[in-house]
Amino acid sequence: MEARQLILKQIPIRHRTIRVLRSGVTLVIAVLVSALGTFAAETVQKAPPGTGQKAPPIAAAAATKIAPAVKIEALNLTVTPAQPKAGDPVTVKFTVRNAGPGAAAKVPWSIHLYTGNRTLAQGEQLNVAAGATFEVTAPWTPTAGNQRLQGYVDPTGKTLKNTAPPTAQVKELTVAVAPAATSQKATDAPAPKLVQQVLNYQKAKAAGARFSHGIDSGSLCNDLGQVVSSRPDMSVVFWARCGGPGGRATPEAFTGFQLKNGWKIFSVLEPVESQKAGSSDWQWIQRPSEGSSETSMKMRVWADPNSVITVQVKVVIAGPEGTDPYVASVR
What we know:
The chain is mainly β. The protein has 3 domains: 2-65; 72-175, Immunoglobulins (Immunoglobulin-like), CATH 2.60.40.10; 190-320, no CATH class. It has 2 helices and 24 strands. The chain has helices spanning 184-188, 201-206; strands spanning 2-4, 13-22, 25-34, 38-46, 64-65, 72-80, 90-98, 104-113, 118-128, 133-140, 145-153, 168-175, 194-198, 210-212, 223-227, 236-242, 247-249, 252-255, 264-268, 272-277, 280-286, 297-303, 307-313, 315-320. Strands 1, 2, 3, 4 and 5 form a 5-stranded antiparallel sheet that branches. Strands 14, 17, 18, 21 and 22 form a 5-stranded antiparallel sheet that branches. It has a 4-stranded antiparallel sheet with strand order 9-8-11-12, with no helix packed on it. A hairpin with a 4-residue loop joins strand 8 and strand 9. The longest helix is centred in the middle third of the chain and has 6 residues, at 201-206. The relative contact order is 0.12.
């Protein structure tokens, strides 16, 4: 009998033996499992009894390295203030930790309002080191009643092969009704008539709203980022038009601006792709919330070579008739 062995030195191992019949030859495979996650195989081949033949040598199996397990944990989901009333501006904070032994190149996340079936914010955190945590937030203006918020890691379940429960956190709370005005004058006064209009790009910019292109380093495109709006309704436009090597951007709009004089966001219409050709797409990173005076929004747009995409976002706001949503009234 001949034997060729792959010998592991100074590695604690467990030993298992498997017998396999092949072409009249008994093949004995001893599998050695090291504590470090590296496998090696020892092979011994025996000739059939009574043949007097020598068994040909079999090469030992090569060592194979196991990739470290992905363990991205949904750690915590909180709201500030902790006991909000209806109409209060609330910040939802989601904390995520990389509990695995290796770095994670990309961690998708999402903060979702279950009771309203609406995503408050979503995005991707890049290059999360082993043991590191990160926090993401979403603005929310709650309505009265029982509310349920959810924070997800890899909400589609298609990016990570995650092995670390929990991958979601849930926050349930009861939102109280805002107290009614107590003054006799406020009680007697008729409620103001509410009117609607589209959130105006130019007026908001004049009132201090900030707009940025957010172009990734190395992106070369004819047009990329957030476009100066010249549309009749003055809605905001994001785009990527690339005739060369392609590009990526995370443009922002209406950053740092709050509606004035009781005006709130009434609705955020579904973004309209007025142009789309080639390999291009977009994704919400921060979407404005209905019922909030906060108007900030952020979107991811990208286009490969010889591709184009233009996305129009129209936000409808509502407030008391005769008041200005962009300039605070002087009393």
